[in-house]
Amino acid sequence: MAPKKKEEPKPAPAPKPPEPEPPKEPEFNPAEVKLEFTAEQIEDFKDAFQLFDRTPTNEMKITYAQCGDLIRALGQNPTNAEVMHVLGKPKAEEMQVKMLDFEQFLPIHQHICKAKDRGTFEDFVEGLRVFDKEGNGTVMGAELRHVLATLGEKMKEDEVEQLMAGQEDANGCINYEAFVKHIMAG
Amino acid sequence: MRINCSNRTSLKGRSMKAAILIQRWYRRYVAHLEMRRRYTWNIFQSIEYAGEQDQLQLSSFFSFMLDNVTQMNGNGPDLISHLLDSVVDPLTEEVRQLKYEQIVVSESYSGPRLSFPLSVTDTNALLSAFKEEQTLHGKYVLQLLYETKKFLKQMPNVIYLSTSYAKEITICGDLHGSLDDLLLIFYKNGLPSAENPYIFNGDFVDRGKKSTEIIIILFAFLLLYPDHMHLNRGNHEDHIMNLRYGFTKEVMQKYKTHGREILQLLQDVFSLLPLATVIDNKVLIVHGGISDKTDLDFLSTVERHKVVPFLDSFVSLEPPEPPREELEWQQVVDILWSDPKNQNGCSLNSFRGGGCYFGPDVTQALLQKHDLCLLIRSHECKQEGYELCHNGQVITIFSASNYYEEGSNRGAYIKLGPELVPRFFQYQVSRSTRKLTLHQRVRVAEGSALRALKEKLYAQRSELMAAFQQYDIDNTGRISTSEWAQVVESVLRLDLPWRTLRPRLARLSADGNVEYGSCFEDISPGEPIPPVTPNLAETLYRYRTDLEIIFNIIDKDHSGQISIEEFRQTWKLFTSHLGVAVNDQTIDDMARSIDFNKDGSIDFNEFLEAFRVVHKLDVKEQQQG
């Protein structure tokens, strides 16, 4: 993680716009979310919801920990931070224990679906291009591994391994357009 | 300086953004993979249970046959006697033993030569030989089975064990012909011995290709360490199950000369396997489960070798049926076939065609009745190789990894010491899976599951189309996704996430509706089939396995041939039972057309092979090389 910028003591009262910290987000309120899904979409979500329901009596409930997975399985790609936000910032120990039912899931999912800036194929390629030192369409596998494990919402070693499995060529390079296609197709 | 600073910051900022973007997409990719893995598992499991339901269909056909055969004035196929005839072998024990001893094994045979009583040399030789893919000579198989039968005869129905003689007892679940799993268990946990006792909880055979090797090894250790090796009977240790699920075929393929006699001996051995094991009077181990009627004391008195679970379900015993015999049958079937469920109560297990679904209250009651603390059972495949339920009072242990497909599940075994706290050990055989990534494994398993599902759709095509068309009043060829899902679920009776699966099974039209005809596009008949009406063809696709079993029963000497007359009569009965309207002429034509060499007998395997479906995409892939 990049080190936090040291705040300089400022005598002047003129407020400096807080940067680069993002503006403090209001707490997520599911009641304020307007559901815009079609009936067909809701049926699709219900179908998938049932697939993730592991309750022994099929109560149509999933754990908080599964919520992010379900949203992603349905085609969205929120960050972990965004998921925690819509879940109301639960504590770590609550994730496996607290449950939500389908009615509670819908506004959460709607909020994620409405979020802008989902990232297109081009954005994704651009992101990887940052690590393309030689500008030749490839990135070093080792560097990418390092980045994914140390920056952003860090991935664990075995997650990185799974992602990169079979992607590097003999020189340890990855053609990132192919890589992106591989990830987006999955 | 400043510019450099901001450049560096900017680069860091961009790297951060890029990393987050990649991580987001990765997490989406993983979640999607997980979803595919889950529905693949659901597909395999539902199809397996549906297959067991087909078994029920078969037994009801046999009942039907019994009822109707008398009306044919003895012109029907001699199926009844074929079914009821167990081993009719007039040889006495001594004569049989001598006969086996006199079988000559040629000099060129390089496999193990067993000598009885067995020693560690023999078991080691067997293990080495099987690792090298050798086959044990029929003579030794017969001798082994004969000795096993003698040994099992003096065993009780319920075996009581104690942990005081050894540190821990190892309990394994279903193996289903997977030799790799057995060898992996022995590798991880050591071979059976006085210091390392084992219990194998049934279903050693069927489905996997090495069932013969497994039972040879298990029986050999049983004879070698009679006090430290214990085998419980499973529902697959049964003649009719073996016909359906592959063990019979495996034996006949590996043992051309002695196969039939081996199968006959196996029937006896299977029926003599003990039904339950109890450890320290506290832990009960049975293959399937229990019912609210289960009583260990009564179970101990049952004449277990006389109970043939599958056959007895439809063979009418001489009236008036002695109530005791029926009760005995019930007790045994419950032990071998039941499954736990989460709701209280005890209901008939319609899926399996036998046994019960038993709830936590039933478990609690039984454990209390016999002062037990734990029930260990197998019978159901579990993703992690084991699963607890009923508040930890029931453990399911399953030892065949990759049961449905490469990478589908792990296998596991339990170690139980004097403190009776189970420890679980998991494993997964991975010949080729080690080289595959998770993504590839999911894709392979998913492909296999979807193929099986498409075959099911194809096999009930006309019923499905009729139901689709009910929604499609204007004959557009399209219906809504909800309607499509509803039809498929009700016709196939498989509880699956049909909406999620839809993209893999059927096409959408431009207006977002499902083109229901598209779910059959990928499948076509394999070879040119004999001249039959589409109706008949569909029946054949659907009941292929049942017919195979029936023909195999008729074909007592396993020659692969039955007479035309037998074929005709069987077919007539079967279609009549199913309510499929077929006239006599059609059947006669069909029979005549498949008697290729006009000698009055039919090679039914060849006939049935014609009714295998082919997946067009697979064919295309093969053609592209």
UniProtKB/TrEMBL annotation, chain A:
Compositional bias annotation for Basic and acidic residues: 1-10, 18-31
Location of the EF-hand domain: 119-154
PROSITE patterns: EF_HAND_2 (PS50222)
Stated name of the protein: Myosin, light chain 13
Protein keywords: Motor protein, Muscle protein, Myosin
One GO cellular component term: myosin II complex
One MF term in the entry's GO annotations: calcium ion binding
Domain of life of the native organism: Eukaryota
Region of interest: Disordered: 1-31
UniProtKB/TrEMBL annotation, chain B:
Domain EF-hand: from-to ranges: 459-494, 542-577, 582-617
One Pfam family from the record: EF-hand_7
Catalysis: reaction(s): O-phospho-L-threonyl-[protein] + H2O = L-threonyl-[protein] + phosphate; O-phospho-L-seryl-[protein] + H2O = L-seryl-[protein] + phosphate
EC number: 3.1.3.16
Swiss-Prot/TrEMBL keywords: Calcium, Hydrolase, Magnesium, Manganese, Metal-binding, Protein phosphatase, Repeat
Superkingdom: Eukaryota
Keyword Phosphoprotein in annotation: no
Cofactor(s) annotated in UniProt: Mg(2+); Mn(2+)
Record CDD domains: EFh, MPP_RdgC
Family matches, as SMART domains: EFh, PP2Ac
Entry-linked Gene3D superfamilies: 3.60.21.10, EF-hand
GO molecular function terms noted in the UniProt entry: calcium ion binding; iron ion binding; manganese ion binding; protein serine/threonine phosphatase activity
InterPro entries: Calcineurin-like_PHP, EF_Hand_1_Ca_BS, EF_hand_dom, Metallo-depent_PP-like, PPP_dom, PPP_phosphatase, Ser/Thr-Pase_EF-hand_contain, Ser/Thr-sp_prot-phosphatase
GO biological process, one term: detection of stimulus involved in sensory perception
Residue stretches in coiled coil: none
Family: Belongs to the PPP phosphatase family.
Name of the protein described by the UniProt record: Serine/threonine-protein phosphatase
Organism expressing this protein natively: Cyprinus carpio carpio
Lineage, broadest ranks: Eukaryota, Metazoa, Chordata, Craniata, Vertebrata
